[in-house]
Amino acid sequence: MPRPSVREQLVEAAVECFHERGFNGTGIQDIARTAGVPKGSVYNHFDSKEALAGEVMDRYAASRKLELLHDEALAPVPRLRAHFEYLAADLERFSYARGCMFGNFGTELANQSDTVRTQVDARLDAWTSAVTRVLEEARTVGALKSPVAAEQLGQFLVNAWEGAVLRAKVTRDRAPLDNFFDVFDSLVA
Amino acid sequence: MPRPSVREQLVEAAVECFHERGFNGTGIQDIARTAGVPKGSVYNHFDSKEALAGEVMDRYAASRKLELLHDEALAPVPRLRAHFEYLAADLERFSYARGCMFGNFGTELANQSDTVRTQVDARLDAWTSAVTRVLEEARTVGALKSPVAAEQLGQFLVNAWEGAVLRAKVTRDRAPLDNFFDVFDSLVA
Which pTM value belongs to this model? Predict the structure, then answer.
């Protein structure tokens, strides 16, 4: 049985490499080197780079802390805003260079791997549903300004966020995220 | 002197390949094969794959027809909507699989090539300025609903469009673009 800690090291190394160089720009050798393990041991744990990408997305999804969107201690609109602020702070830690793993994989791999495309689709749908539920709560308590239906607005905000994150990856500063929050405040709060 | 038609074939082939497989997923050999020319002749025309990417972006930028944003035959808001509809029709021709070349290169290459990152940044800024000017015109004639400043809204719409295009690349349908237009109508028109 492979030691769990090597598997863990490999997933962490893959997160680094995929963020830094993308999927096609990263070789198994790069991941092994970053993890400090021999190249051969990667295949003791993962059948393919694609399988490793699946595990990286699981890890990334957990780090989004979507469960906080259900935390009724905060009113719906401030809770939703805090969610995006949490994501923004995470991007800031890496000087806005990392972008969103879902957006990165979706952009790079949608035409290359139907497995990855389907996984990204499901992740973005789950996130959209969680955002939509908060907007529905806001509507119920009369706290949602926009006349747009919660479901439509949920989808729009998730996509607009992905676009802002992409732009921040290019500008290397927080301006596109600040812009998102300004329009968010006008559209939602 | 290389024949201009070979150069042309190479740029067209690179557009295909970069859209299909991304920058890192595309080899010079793939571009040569798609263009139907020997691999060596690529380097008669371009110093590097990165130089070819610059030319591909020029070509792509011209195909966005930003000049139509200055066409005063149409009122500002319908003109802006028609601009995004034009981009949507272009995406539809390729079953939403291609995405936006600026977004694709920005996502994949921002960490890898400062040259490409800077080019994408300039392209997105020029596009944002053109969109902003139309919104300013709309504001002048009292046709802009949103209380958000034209400049902020211009930046937001461009980024939200990029996010919708990314999402459509993953869902492989027009739904994310329809969603963009629905919110556009509520936000702008």
Answer: 0.95
